[in-house]
Design a protein that fits this description.
Layout lengths: L3 H10 L1 E4 L5 H14 L14 E4 L5 H7 L2 H11 L13 E4 L20 E2 L1 H7 L8 E2 L6 H4 E2 L9 E6 L11 E3 L7 H4 L20 E3 L7 E4 L5 E2 L11 E2 L2 E2 L16 H9 L4
Antiparallel strand pairs: 1-10, 2-3, 2-5, 4-6, 7-10, 7-12, 7-13, 8-9, 8-11
Helix pairs in contact: 1-8, 2-3
Length: 276
């Protein structure tokens, strides 16, 4: 269970770390499954010739269990509201980052962003043309700025979930976070209404402090859908394994509840809009 202090930190900072969200042994099982999907030798670093490989969705029992443990289910309820989110039956994507000798900001896919929550009409048409979501995916989707959308009520996304399947220290390509940047996003999305927009975030929250999503295998980070973040390079010695699934809502967030009983995700959006 998240403490009251952790919940307030989520509202203010945009994320909360859940230590031991799933067993380390389960993380190892998931990691082994991903190794099997990669065309490399875990014991021979000379075969690690790519900086990052992005694998698609997986529905294996091990992955589904890792994303739906009692600790995570309780935290989802606390942040999103009981009955207001859909259990994860597919997990991914998996950006697997191999060690490289480059500065952190020189990652191939470096770029400050929020994870989009739904597709534009053009995106729906493009994605219905036979996209395989379970194999290797492009590192950066083509035409992403025309395909992906976010709106003020975060249609289609309740949380961004980061599941650490390997120990992740400061040199192991931890996700880099602009702390509190989720509060800067609502005023930028508000003018676009339900249709939403692709939001360029290079400068959003640029004056905010930074945090790294470090932790042990089995830890999880639960992030507000508007949290601005970026990948960085792996300057360590071992590959970094992580999943970044979207926890989907059963409906839309309500920023004007008659009873005033707002869940933490809604409270943060309202705070960004200066509604209290």
């Amino acid at each position: 269970m998240l403490t009251a202090e952790q919940i307030e930190s989520f509202v203010a900072d945009g994320f909360v770390r859940v230590p031991n969200a799933f067993p380390a042994a389960l993380a190892a099982e998931c990691r082994n499954l991903l190794w099997k999907q990669l065309d490399v030798d875990p014991d021979d670093s000379s075969t690690w010739t790519r900086e990052v490989v992005r694998l698609g969705l997986r529905g294996d029992d091990a992955f589904v269990r890792s994303a739906n443990t009692p600790a995570l289910v309780e935290a989802y309820d606390q942040l999103v509201g009981a009955g207001r989110w859909r259990p994860l039956d597919m997990v991914g994507t998996f950006p697997i980052r191999f060690p490289v000798d480059r500065d952190p900001e020189q990652a191939e896919d470096y770029g400050w962003h929020i994870d989009a929550s739904f597709l534009s009409p053009e995106g729906v048409a493009a994605m219905s043309s036979g996209q395989d979501w379970e194999g290797e995916l492009p590192l950066v989707p083509p035409d992403y700025d025309r395909i992906f959308r976010s709106n003020l009520v975060s249609r289609g996304r309740a949380l961004l979930v980061l599941l650490l399947y390997s120990d992740t220290g400061e040199r192991d390509a931890p996700t880099l976070i602009r702390v509190g940047s989720h509060l800067d996003v609502p005023p930028l999305l508000a003018p676009y209404g339900a249709e939403g927009t692709y939001l360029a975030c290079r400068d959003v929250g640029a004056d905010r402090p930074l945090a790294m999503a470090t932790g042990r295998a089995g830890d999880a980070y639960l992030c507000h859908p508007f949290l601005v973040h970026t990948p960085i390079t792996n300057t360590g010695t071992s590959p970094r394994f992580m999943a970044q699934p979207s926890l989907q809502p059963t409906g839309e967030f309500d920023l004007d509840r008659a009873d005033g009983q707002y869940v933490p995700v809604e409270r943060a959006i309202r705070a960004g809009l200066a509604r209290g």
